[in-house]
Structures are given as structure tokens and as C-alpha cells.
Write a structure and sequence with these properties.
Rossmann fold, alpha/beta, binds nicotinamide-adenine-dinucleotide, about 45% helix
Length: about 250
């Protein structure tokens, strides 16, 4: 997949899925801007990539702040001269069902999971338009496609909004050479899941819903991002791409 030289901003890339995306994109020749509110993790992720002779920088930011977005875009332009791809990946989950959640918690979920994507697009689009094109990859979830009974409703609503915001941007800004797609991972195998899986019933429930019979890996998700960011995906626009082993098939 050709992403050589592309300037790619990734939010939430200090850890989790974002750091694996950053690493894979850099290995394939991209210039990677790691954006995260956790300065320690973000700097360490950038240092690890740079130490391999690849191109990565860290910029500390809160994805819900307009000022931080303006500064992050300026930082990317200063380092690479371009903003080719923005991966709006940072997200949170307040794990409470709807009847236990406060309106403030609801608003926080919406602000971080959905507002951040809105801001990332708002501040990158003018730069992409000037350049003659660009690309957004927004991390939604299987919960942006289906109502998932194990997941907080606020998370589902916030990710559903990301799905449709992605399509709306794909439709309006294609004429400026800007593509916009979303990815929809199912549960990814992490240390947190390992704890959850100590309970055999929960393990059986979670694995039982995946036709391919295993959880996603961070690499599965990063490979989808690599494709959507690449030249090979130049006619792919407005797609909601599940990375879920078939969870959303039925
Ligand atoms: N892990 C999964 O199973 C899974 C499944 C489907 C979708 N997702 C989505 O994938 C994305 C990444 O998830 P993850 O599992 O890697 O999460 P994670 O918690 O491991 O990492 C998220 C990163 O985002 C950063 N972050 C959080 N709020 C921020 C803010 N306001 N400003 C800047 N940075 C902020 C954190 O510091 C952290 O480094 C999220 O949008 C999540 O909803 C995850």
C-alpha cells in the first residue's frame, strides 16, 4: 500500500490502536504526527518510531479543544508542509447503561467521541482544499452500525454519529478531492479483555458473536487504516468498513 511521504495526523496515537496505526503507517513511509493528551505516552510512541529511522513527531493536544486543533494543524504544516490524512481515532467509553448515566457524562462522550471528529474535519478541510485533496479516516465501532447489547448506549450513539458525519463529509467535500471513510472495529484483544475473559461465561458470550471466532487485533485495525490512507483506495469514499470478523453480518 502506497502512503510514502504522506503527512498523517492520528489522534489518540499515544497508546492503544492509534500507536499501532502510527507505527504501521510510518513503516510504510508515511510522516506521522502523533496527537494525544497523554504527553508521556505520546512522546514515547513518537520516540519509538523515530528510533527506527522513521518519521514521527508528537504534539500534545486535547481533541475537544478548538485552539489545540488549530495548533496541531500548524505543527503538522511546520514539520511536513502538508496535511494529507487525518485519522480521527481518539475515543472514550464511560461504561454505564442509559438509566445510570448523567447528562454530563452523555455530553462528555459526545464531545470526545463525536465533537473531536467534527473539529478535526473543520480545521483540516481548508488545508486539504488548498492542497487539492486529502483524506479522513474516522474510528467508529461496530456500535456505529448496530445496537450492541453489551455496550453503553451513549457510546453507541456517539459512534453512530461518527458513521454519518463521515458519510456527509464524503459527499460534500469529494469535489475538493477529499475522501472520508470510517472504520468499525469489534472488540480488540487488549490486557483489559484478558481480565474480562477470566470469566468463562463472558468469554463465551463475546467470542460467540464473532463468526470468525476470535477477537480483532490492533494490527487488523491498523491494516484497514493503511489501506484507506493509501493511493490504492483513491476511489473509496464514504465507506463504513467493519473490521469485525463478521459481527455486524447478522
Ligand atoms: N479497543 C477496542 O476494542 C475498540 C473497539 C472499537 C472501537 N474502538 C475505538 O478505537 C479508538 C481507539 O481505542 P483504543 O482501544 O485504542 O483506546 P485507548 O484508551 O487504548 O487509547 C485512546 C487514546 O486516546 C487518548 N485520548 C483520550 N481522550 C483524549 C482527548 N480528549 N484528547 C486527546 N487524546 C485523548 C488517550 O490518551 C489514549 O492514548 C476509540 O475511538 C475507540 O472508541 C476501540
Amino acid at each position: 500500500m502506497n502512503v510514502k511521504g504522506k503527512s498523517i495526523l492520528i489522534t489518540g496515537a499515544g497508546g492503544g490502536l492509534g500507536s499501532v496505526m502510527a507505527s504501521l503507517l510510518a513503516e510504510n513511509g508515511a510522516q506521522v504526527l502523533i496527537l494525544d493528551m497523554d504527553a508521556q505516552k505520546g512522546q514515547a510512541a513518537a520516540d519509538e518510531i523515530s528510533a527506527r529511522g522513521l518519521k514521527a513527531w508528537f504534539f500534545p493536544m486535547d481533541v475537544t479543544s478548538e485552539d489545540d486543533w488549530k495548533a496541531a494543524i500548524d505543527f503538522a504544516l511546520e514539520k511536513t508542509g502538508r496535511v494529507d490524512v487525518v485519522v480521527n481515532n481518539a475515543g472514550i467509553n464511560i461504561r454505564k447503561p442509559v438509566e445510570e448515566m448523567t447528562i454530563d457524562e452523555w455530553c462528555t462522550m459526545m464531545k470526545v467521541n463525536t465533537g473531536s471528529v467534527f473539529l478535526g474535519c473543520k480545521y483540516a478541510i481548508p488545508v486539504m482544499r488548498r492542497q487539492g485533496g486529502g483524506c479522513f479516516i474516522n474510528t467508529s465501532s461496530v456500535c456505529g452500525l448496530i445496537g450492541h447489547k453489551y455496550t453503553p448506549e451513549a457510546y453507541t450513539a456517539s459512534k453512530g454519529a461518527v458513521t454519518m458525519l463521515t458519510k456527509a463529509i464524503a459527499s460534500r467535500y469529494a469535489r475538493d478531492g477529499i475522501r472520508s471513510n470510517s472504520i468499525h472495529p469489534s472488540t480488540v484483544y487488549t490486557p483489559l479483555v484478558e481480565t474480562l475473559f477470566k470469566d468463562p461465561q463472558r468469554k463465551a458470550e463475546r467470542l460467540g458473536e464473532v463468526p470468525l471466532g476470535r477477537l480483532a487485533t490492533a494490527e487488523d485495525v491498523a491494516n484497514a487504516v493503511l489501506y484507506l490512507a493509501s493511493e490504492e483506495a483513491s476511489f473509496i469514499n464514504g465507506v463504513s468498513l467493519p473490521v469485525d470478523g463478521g459481527v455486524t453480518c447478522y
